[in-house]
Amino acid sequence: xxxxxIDRHSGVATYVQIxxxxxxxxxxxxxxPGDRLPTAREVVEATAINPNTVLKAYRELEREGLVEAxxxxxxxxxxxxxxxPADSPLRAELEEWADRAREAxxxxxxxxxxxxxxxxxxxxxxxx
Length: 128
Prior knowledge:
Elements lengths: L13 H14 L12 H8 L3 H13 L3 E4 L3 E4 L11 H15 L4 H15 L6
Antiparallel strand pairs: 1-2
Helix pairs in contact: 1-3, 2-3
């Protein structure tokens, strides 16, 4: 089951963090069609956030057609995103690169900025 990690100091709204983390799990194949998302109660117990925040995130995911709420049963994945499974060889290469970046003394924000710059260069004008 998906465990949400909420960063209260990120400046990103909590419900947006839930949406982003769910989409990431969908892209990596960690969530697949038919999988059940944690209930709002489970998320609240694990993260100490307001249940309405969880429901807002789930409604956003439902509006995007990624999940569907089934009354009395929970919220289930309707479709996945992307094609980058968690066990992809590219992930292993990226792990090695991140290790080298850390060994070189780069901080997380430095790595994120560098990676974003490379993504922007290679995916310029890409609508995805």
